[in-house]
Amino acid sequence: MMTQIQAAEPSTKPQKPTGYQFYRDVLGSPKYIVAPMVDQSELAWRRLSRRYGAQLIYTPMINAKMFVDAGNKTYRTANFDLIHGEEGDPKTDRPLVVQFCANDPEQLLISAKVVEGHCEAVDLNLGCPQEIAKRGYYGSFLQDNWDLIYKLINTLHVNLSIPVTAKFRVFPTVEKTVEYAKMLERAGAQIITCHGRLREQRGTNTGLADWDKIKAVKEAVSIPVFANGNILYQSDIDACLKATGCDGVMSAEGQLYNPALFAGIDNIPVDHPDYDSDENILRRHPKHADLALEYLDIVMELETTTSVSAIKGHLFKIMRPGLVRETDLREKLGKVKIDGKRVKEGLKWYRAVCEEMKERMDRDAKAAEGTPLKDLITVEPITGIKVMPHWLAQPYFRPTPEQKKAYGT
Predict the structure, then answer these.
(1) Annotated catalytic, 119?
(2) Would you say 261 and 251 are in contact if contact means Cβ atoms under 8 Å apart?
(3) Contact of 255 with 235, CB cutoff 8 Å
(4) Residue of 101, 119, 128, 354 marked active site
(5) pLDDT digits (tens, 9 = 90+) for 138-188
(6) Domains and CATH numbers, the chain
């Protein structure tokens, strides 16, 4: 255990890439980024996401307080498996950013040192708004302790061989949000991700992200900025980049429900005359049962164990448009129980549900043959957001309290 952390001072070590040099030369100027998601941006999901256009992916959040304990091999292996060599593999799992939550600079540094040779950067979670983060004093519940946040970031900046980044939520005012972002930059963050929601905006009170605050952050700092929030369709990505001026867009839930969110976006932009052809709609909204089966194939191929909770969570999200209709399959999927130590042996039960879903969705798609897919798109009355045919992957969105009230529900 380290007893002293090196203070911020000029280093004699070789200079590591910073800011835009890091963004361009190391990461390859990514615009389409998959967010760090607890138990949901695991290795199998990252491999699927890269097949469909993701250019940079963050790992699920790792708790530095637990990861720092080298004797806790179960936690370490479950959160970043160094044994099989697949996580952070230069050929199949990069570029990669490993995210930690922490409130102790020493614990954070020791944990980051374990993974620094297996990723391009280490990220500090300053955005988690959940109760567990409140109890553990991390994530967005650190945002009033700027001295501690500075120390956490600066410790990594000074002592790691790779850059440190940070993901954070906004404050109620633009002014405080901007000052916060500038502090993160001074501390040594080389890329920051601005989630345009307040700490209180979660669950049923999620609401809309504030792109104006993200724009203000982008204009106030000299390092790359990723925007996060309100990304459901590819058209939202284009709109967000134009509205905020950010260098990239990070998606969490939008990409979870449709892992093909980024597919073909640079080849067929939203203003392309063939954007709404069947071929291009299917490129960015594949059949969800096919995606679910492809994900299961990846889980089967990996030596690294995928958690049962991650698998089930992904299947429920990917196939949601079908599951809300095929309630017997939803019930059957919910009842599947797999031994976490014998995951591959139990995948057949998940696969059976997915294959039955595929049969039913192919049936419905065939019944609609002859009608262009664009003519089968409807509009959800409360939110005004478009809804794709139910056999296709698509976002799930919750109406805001204001929208519900306006609609009289």
Answers:
(1) no
(2) yes
(3) no
(4) 128
(5) 988 999 999 999 999 999 999 999 999 999 999 999 999 999 999 999 999
(6) 19-266 (3.20.20.70), 276-408 (no CATH)
